[in-house]
Design a protein that fits this description.
This protein has 439 residues and is mainly beta. It has a single domain (32-438), classed as Porin. The protein has helices at residues 5-23, 184-187, 272-282, 366-373; strands at residues 31-44, 62-78, 81-92, 114-139, 148-162, 202-211, 214-222, 239-251, 254-270, 292-309, 312-321, 335-345, 350-363, 392-402, 407-417, 428-438. Strands 1-2-3-4-5-6-7-8-9-10-11-12-13-14-15-16 form a 16-stranded antiparallel barrel. A hairpin with a 2-residue loop joins strand 6 (202-211) and strand 7. Helix 3 (272-282) runs parallel beside helix 4. The chain is globular and about 70 Å long. The two termini are 32 Å apart.
Length: 439
Amino acid sequence: MRFDSTYATLAMLCCLSSAALAAESDGAEGWALHAQATLVWQFHPGFHSPYRGGNSLDPAARGDETFDATLYAGVRLFDGLELWINPEIDQGFGLSNTFGVAGFPSGEAYKFGKAEPYFRLQRLFFRETFDLGGDAEAIEPGANQLGGARTRDNLIVTFGKLSVTDIFDNNSYAHDPRADFLNWSIIDAGAYDYAADAWAYSYGVAAEWTQSWWTLRSGVFNLSKVPNTTHLETDFAQFEIAGEAEAREELFGRPGKIKLLGYVNRGRMADYSDAVRLAQATGGVPNADLVRNYRSRPGASINLEQELWDDLGFFLRASWDDGSKEAYEFTEINRSVSAGLSLKGTSWGRGKDTVGLAGVVNELSNSARSYFAAGGLGILIGDGRLPHYGSETILETYYSAQITDWFSLGADYEFIVNPAYNRDRGPVSVFGLRAHMQY
């Protein structure tokens, strides 16, 4: 199955022909249009760098920007069934073309950049909601969500083209680079190598079963045909299986959530040790492309969010993956711990403003260290050598000011110690500005 322009056109015709039927849903939105546009500019001054490799962060002073504009068009086809389509225009580059830091500084930067604007159909998915009983709860209208109601106990099935992190690894305080933190390993679990193309989307299906205070999620998604590329499998020849359990609780009367995630990727991937041994035998440098075989790569994470006060929230994530195999989709992080605070500006008369502070520590496995020390390149990092390994440690803070109901401006700062786990390079300061419009 291909989600090309023909498929999109047919889907939109289906939307229009079903709108009258959808409008009959009592008290619920029959259709909706929303849109967003985000501009992020980042800059780092020059930093210490006695050498660099093919995937290194440029040590000279450098600034880059990214822009995206997205339309969210949705229709209720039948009672409980929604169809959403998200065409998008993208443009720009991440710093150093999105290389050089495992916890990359901008979640708005894709692994594929262009100087000119280009079109992508990022999402096209169906969502079916089954009411299973309990009190009715209101569903607020928003991007990719029709307003209406459902019972507190429910089953939601989503299938089509979407992002795995639309459903898994969500966190109220650190998950949206258009509104909160920017760093990859803060907005997501650093060691969650989730199925995705170069823009972070995949084809798949997921189910979410909610009862009272808990939710269980499971899903299967296509991996890229080759690690870190623009083309996805469409027949699940290479795939990810993910499962997540969520518990909602109260601590001293304050709401919170804890989530446990586990996943397995099955695909043609390299074992770092095989690549190092081949390089030693041939006198070259390790190359993951030469030693890929069909293998499994599991991982897990814990994800905590807790309201501490009316306007203050805390989050923590800890994640791990099998570090003997190459990173397939996301980034070279085998162990990661992040934590932070998010504060609304009520106390200084700016209740819709947000300020955040977070830190993350990312680490490589011993096998990955050997691979990069011998000169290997990964999907995001590779300095050509790694004689002095160190944990990659990142501190991020931001302020987002809500100027109008539809427009916000933000400033962001990140301090990166040991970029790409290399104690010989850095530290790096990254300054950022963000403008976001949403309707």
